[in-house]
Every structure is written in structure tokens, then in C-alpha cells.
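Journal club prep — side note

Before the paper discussion, L.F. wants everyone to see what a predicted structure for a comparable chain looks like in C-alpha cell form. Sequence:
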Amino acid sequence: MPDRYARHRQYIAALKFAGVECHIARFSEQNASCKSCGAQWKRHEEKETDVHFSLTLLEDAVDNIFDRAIIISADSDHVPAVRCVRRRYPAKQIFAATPPGRHSMARGMLNACNSGTQITAGRIEKCLFPETIRDAAGNVIAVRPSSYKPYP
């Protein structure tokens, strides 16, 4: 999917330009098939991202990098790391901010954290990158697709 890959690379470039430290996951190609008709295709599955995130959270707690962490996710795979940090470092605060439409599915994450809230679509709209991001020399770093809609 070259178009999706190109858009993703531009997004990563925009994040890096904004000062975000990006950790790129690896993808594994998997065979998939339709149970009804038997059609087969290749799909890509992201690997190691949750483990990397959890280990980074724990490392940052051990190294005393943060007093308060904000996790933007509803993924329950992060719950064991959050519980470990809260158990080992009770003074550290961990806050969950869940994406729109995911708050009700994030019960485990919300219970593991000190507190949490849902990110509204309006908040995301206010935080969008500009349509075109340029460096100091005027070179284009990234362009937001014209069809992009953050949430309906």
C-alpha cells in the first residue's frame, strides 16, 4: 500500500519536526483468508509496539524521568506496566487520555491509572498540524491529505 506508506512517512516526518521522539515498529506479513469464500491475501501486523511502550514507561519511572505521565491510549496491553509503575513508584501519577469513542472500552486502563478522561473530537481538531509543514528554509516537510477528517 504505497499511498498509505507515503502518508505515514510524512506524518512521522511532521512529528519529528515538531520535536516528538518516534519509535518505529516493525511489521510482520501474515497470510489471511475469508472464512466464507476462501479468498486469500497478505496483511501486515504491527509487532513489538506495546512491549516497547511498556518498557519505556517502566524505564522512565526507574530513571525518574517523570512525576506525571499521560498515556494517550485505550489499549489494555499497557495495564500491566501501569500497575507495575504505580506499585513500585506510588508517588508517580499516571493519567489516561482515551481517543474519541474508545473511553467505554478502556475500563482496564482507566482502572489502572490514577485518573483519566476522553479526548474530544474538538480537542483533536484544535491540535491538528497545519495543512503544510515547512522547515526554516521553506522546504515542505509534510502535507496533510485534503481528505483527512480526524473524527466524524
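L.F.'s comment for the group: Residues 1-18+129-152 form one domain. Keep this in mind when we get to the figures.
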